[in-house]
Design brief:
Helix content is about 40%, strand content about 15%. The protein has about 130 residues and is α/β, with parallel strands linked by helices. Strands 1-2-3 form a 3-stranded parallel β-sheet. Strand 2, helix 4 and strand 3 form a beta-alpha-beta unit. The longest helix has 14 residues. The two termini are about 20 Å apart.
């Protein structure tokens, strides 16, 4: 996202100060397994930059839980990241793949089957900072 676009969002009264940025996850380990780059610190810097350019902006995300290889530590890292940095969120489970190249499941079945359980029990309550 360019600074020029962020400036337009900040200055134009007819544009809602809201972005939905699908980060998928914040754990470098999980993101690498997804063939994505970045991680927690990169994401924090990007979100901080957006908030600096567009004061009062609401940042929402969608995250994926239960990706093969995600364990309790990565799940807890994601919960903490959400609490620290975002205004609103949604979680979706990673589906088991079928077909010629299925990904073997190696994570906790509780995380895969109930991806938002950690959010519902208070580890990462949805909050609406700035909404």
């Amino acid at each position: 996202m360019t600074d020029e676009l962020l400036d337009v969002i900040a200055q134009e009264e007819k544009i809602v100060k809201y972005l939905d940025i699908p980060i998928q996850h914040c754990s470098e380990k999980v993101l690498r397994a997804m063939n994505r780059t970045g991680g927690r610190e990169t994401l924090k810097a990007q979100l901080r930059h957006i908030r600096e350019r567009v004061p009062g902006i609401v940042l929402r995300t969608t995250v994926m839980t239960g990706f093969p290889g995600e364990g309790k530590a990565e799940f807890e890292e994601l919960c903490e990241f959400i609490k620290e940095t975002l205004s609103a969120w949604a979680a979706s489970p990673f589906p088991r793949r079928r077909g010629p190249r299925p990904i073997p499941w190696r994570g906790s079945s509780a995380i895969r089957k109930k991806p938002a359980a950690g959010y519902r029990d208070g580890r990462a309550e949805p909050h609406r900072r700035g909404i």
